[in-house]
Amino acid sequence: MTMADVAEVVANDGAQTFKGKVESFQGEKLPYALDYEASYTPFGDEAAIRKADKWPTISEIVTFVNAQEKANARATAIAKRLADEYKATNNPIFKKLDASTEDGQRMQLIKTLMKAHPKWERDKAEKMADTMMAAE
Question: Which domain holds residue 43?
Answer without folding.
Answer: 1-55
